[in-house]
Structures are given as structure tokens and as C-alpha cells.
Amino acid sequence: MRVDALIDTGAILALLDRSDRWHPFCVKTFQEMRLPLLTSEAVLTELFHLVGDSRREREAAWRFVRSGALVLAQIGDSELAPIHALMSRYWDRPMDFADATLVHLAERESLSTILTVDHSDFETYRIQGRRRFRVLPTQRP
Description:
The protein is of the alpha/beta class. The protein is globular. The longest helix is centred in the C-terminal third of the chain and has 13 residues, at 97-109. Helix 1 packs across helix 2, helix 1 (9-16) packs across helix 3 and helix 5 packs across helix 6. Helix content is 49%, strand content 14%.
């Protein structure tokens, strides 16, 4: 299945939460994107951690995850070293594991577009040390 872009935890949370200041910007951008979007297990781990214990919010997250809007990329053991190298390269930021998996997937899958609310991070990260991400949404709260 062909994907054109990645999605990060904060964007998923903004899509699900109408009170999130990023919600209208992420919804508008999401509606204009070609689906599905690629993400990682680390992003889903963050998502379900941040959604918390509310049954309603957890079920909304599950509906979104299982809606077909996402493709979950597999990351094998052999890919942990490059992810570690990314986290080491950005030690002063610091880059968290979920972000590192997304940068790694961008490199592996030749993607440069990401739906995220973490603009400052993904405007700093480079794909293969050179290329900039196209960070969406372009409008900000």
C-alpha cells in the first residue's frame, strides 16, 4: 500500500480532541491529505498513554487507529541502531523515541511530509542529515 506522509502523536490527539487548539488546523489538513498515513508503534504507544484511562477517549483513539487512515510500519531489530544514532545526533534537543522512529521511517520510505503539531522539532530534524521535512499543517494556532 502506497503512503505519501507520516503522522505524529500530537496530530492524532488534535484530530480526536475538539478542544485542542490545533484541532481545526489538523482536521482541515487531514481532510486534504491522501490516506493512509504512516506511523509507528512508538507513536501508538504515546497516543494511548496520553489518551489516558477515559473509556470514551480510548475508544475514540481505537476507532481512529482502526479506521484505515493509518498504516502501522514495522521496525525490526536491525533498525534499532540507526534509530539510536538519530537520537544521539539530536541529543541536545532531545529527540524522543517516537520522533526518532518517524525520522527513520521517513528515510527508509523516502517520505518527507509529516502531519504533526511538533513543528519546532520536525523543522529541526533532517532526513538523511540533509533534507527538511514538509511540516503540516502549515497554519498554526
